[in-house]
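Workshop exercise sheet. Pairs work together: one partner reads the sequence aloud, the other fills in the structure field after running the prediction. Swap roles for the next sheet.
Pair: D.N. / O.F.
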Amino acid sequence: RPRSRRESSCRLAGLLPHVAVVAALAGAHSLASWSFAPAPVGLPRAASAQSSLRTGLTVMAAQKEVLVPITPRSEDYSAWYMDVIEAADLIDDSPVRGCKILKPGGFAIWESIQRLLDPRLKEIGAKSVYFPLLIPVSFLSKEAAHVEGFAKECAVVTHYRLKNVETEDGSAKVDIDPESKLAEPYVIRPTSETVIWSTFSKWIKSYRDLPLKVNQWVNVMRWELRTRPFLRTSEFLWQEGHTAHATSEEADEQAREVLKAYVELAQDKLALPLIPGRKSNNERFAGADETYTIEVLVQDGLAIQGGTSHFLGQNFAKAFDVTYLNEKQKSEYVWATSWGVSTRLIGAAIMAHSDDSGLVLPPALAEYQVVIMPIAVKDPAKLAEVMETASELKKQLQAAGIRVHLDDRIKIKPGGKFFEWERKGVPLRLDLGAKDLEKGVVLAKSRTSEEKFTIPLGGGVVDGVQDALAKVHETLMERSAALKERLTFQISSRDDFDERIRSREPGFLMVPWGGDDDDEDRIKEETGATLRCYPLEQDPLPEGQICPLTGKPARSWAVFARAY
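Structure field:
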């Protein structure tokens, strides 16, 4: 179903080179082993098999085109996720096992999260700091529960120098100098509670020093056996906040306030379907009295822990002897919180929003919110006018705070570029040709709709673009709400629970829970499901409600799910 005659012909022209790519591959790989999607909109069906190759992505480079297929979600969700990331050109492999390189497009998404969240954390009162990457091993030993939670994930630095070594064939290589062994090893930061609380013991002396609130945007290392880009890697980026307070109530309120900020970010800005709640004893952060969480639901019905905020009680204050003199000059231990979100939010957004055509991102998260696409014409004067108008349009949108890219690669056919930016998840595309100039409009196409529409050029173009971006966000919010409603189930029996948790899209299972820690472990071992959280908003339990999983009296609603 052509969107327009121009786009139909442009797409066909842009895709013709890929037929040659497919033909070249056919000699080594039989086309019978590939599955093909329906023809892209605007492309005649006769050419669909050769040019679509599943939902093949054309990644444009300066002088070459590389076909990157995207596996359909229904065929293999994990492969689809990896393909979307590759097609959008977000990451690359590194020479270090379990670590990934964030390419410009991937890091730009993380910068968007920083841009959205950091001002909110500063409103809370957190000031930016930076603490060292290396932490003495002895620091972790001071908080027993904490070290138990991270011991198996820590990377350890034992030497401080290398030396040149001559091999038998006379070539030189670098090796560890055994004489440089450290008196005390260091761990590469898995999280910073220990080093920060060691420092807080110097910074906090009086009630006048409280509350103390700091935040840092850093990398951390947790050695992972099984990794998945953005969701679980050995090294990842995050922000971690740490606060000290005079009272338990103030600290717990702080932890809840930060969780509210995370909900605003993930639910309101990133349009993610989620449930905010409190973790169980088994699932809470090592060394915390309470852990508050946002649990995100993605399209295959699994959960992703999107962010956590911890009420630490006085555990770290006692471990590092952080006390203050109150107004009566009596010494007391302070109360603590810590909280963080990481690049895992990027993975959650990809899994929640993207489709079989590639990456889909909410406008607040996208590197470019708008891409302007000038359409080439043979008349040099008209082409110059198109390019000048496109440049002015870019300036107008940038002045309004909109992140915009002008794709001025005139020598590349429009069809290929249309597909490229669609796969990269740009929320709004603006096509501008000579005929559009004559009409005084730009032709718009959003990533969340197949329909095209016009936006008048001139003084009203900024409002028109902002309205279109708001519509993209609204559409993603509606889709997320529908996904959450479709995949949230109230469980009434163990058979019901088992059937759902084994299904292809298990979802959030709402259980009137009455079990203890041992019951929770047993359910996890038997089904693979974990108690994700106790929702902060609790509907009343029916009188006399029995837990369907344990046969015990139910205490509260709990969310169970399989999780990444």
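Discussion prompt: The longest strand covers residues 235-245. What would you look at next?
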